[in-house]
Amino acid sequence: MPVPPTASTAPAEERVREAALDLFAARGYHGTGIRQLAEHAGLSSASLYHYMGTKEDLLVAIMRTCLERLIADAEAVVTARADPEERLAELIRMHVRAHAERPRETRVVDGEVEVLGAAARAEVITLRDRYESIWQSVVEDVLTAIGAPAGEDARLARRALLEMCSGVARWYRPDGRSPLEDVADRYAVLGLRLVGVPHPSHPSH
Amino acid sequence: MPVPPTASTAPAEERVREAALDLFAARGYHGTGIRQLAEHAGLSSASLYHYMGTKEDLLVAIMRTCLERLIADAEAVVTARADPEERLAELIRMHVRAHAERPRETRVVDGEVEVLGAAARAEVITLRDRYESIWQSVVEDVLTAIGAPAGEDARLARRALLEMCSGVARWYRPDGRSPLEDVADRYAVLGLRLVGVPHPSHPSH
DNA sequence: GGGTGTCGATCGATCGATCGATAGACGACG
DNA sequence: CGTCGTCTATCGATCGATCGATCGACACCC
């Protein structure tokens, strides 16, 4: 529950962003007051508005940055790999890494969409759909490549994969027993087995 | 965002519970005001306090009920089945059913733990740990039964399984394309493959 | 007439947001 | 050089609204 204050050496604009990330992730958007935000960033609540629009604008900016980064990373993976199974494995590793290294961002993105007004929500959901559609086609390609039976449901598998990988943000700790790359590799194995790849014995990289 | 009001025929105490479930799930705990809660339940905000303690008490009661039910159902599954693979398959089906049929409860339980004070949070986390420990031992038994290599991580697999199954609450709609039992069965197949069961061809029931 | 429900009125606190004021940095002009 | 005007950054004070919670009063029922 207690969140240590943001380091006060960075420029104020970054401190505001960091403070919002810390507090929105820890207490939720509605659970975070403007004054807490200001105190955490080392400014007065009035000064806060020199760097942001409304509180909701701040939330949207965080979500947009995070989602655009995920999309760019996913597109880079698809560009870099041709083999369907390798693509999926690398997509899983990328997603797991992102959620483990930036749990605050992903927690805010995954958990605060419903507080947005209609316009902002539409924008964020469009970005999320773009990201998920990349996964969708990669999963479909894998199912085709392994000659999956007609009953296999790519949408179901995609949802199961994404939820399972996003969950990493809720439990991974950098000081835990296994290094992040191990977790990412293991998740790639679990994910490939999940979709039905018989022997996911690909090299890690 | 709009949430239709709770039917006004039920007794007031149930209406309060239902209203809290609706609004906490849709707008979050901090996003829901006492007056919205009262209006949704068809009472005045003062009358609300005839049926509940504090707003937080109401939240805790919802969480406790949901978690105790999950624990009881999980224990029933373990009692009814002896084969490790069948146990895990049935555990998955149960969890998926629960999250699809009661998305509001599970969304509140999964997403609002951090708003609780220390005492209430400790109680809820204890219940959650009880539930997860049941899964943990079932997953371990499956790994042993199939002679999994020593490198397999039961904790990792358990977390992946639980996150993937809980995600159903975020997308399942009863009017969707596949009936709930299909989804539950498919998830059981995906989950067994995930942990490494070679041919999860068990009958559905 | 003691419970059982229900309510309007209201409490102090906090909410998100805005105001006008102030202090300093920087360049332009004479 | 000095000294204006503008721009950026910051703040205390305060706005109206809403927050969670409580009070005393009223109505009904057994």
TrEMBL record, chains A, B:
Entries under SUPFAM superfamilies matching the protein: Homeodomain-like, Tetracyclin repressor-like, C-terminal domain
Residue ranges flagged as DNA-binding region: 33-52
Domain HTH tetR-type: 10-70
Protein keywords: DNA-binding
InterPro entries, per database record: Homeodomain-like_sf, HTH-type_TetR-like_transc_reg, HTH_TetR, KstR2_TetR_C, Tet_transcr_reg_TetR-rel_C_sf
tRNA-binding found in the keyword field: no
Claim: Lyase is one of the keywords in the record: no
Protein name: TetR/AcrR family transcriptional regulator
Organism, as annotated: Nocardioides fonticola
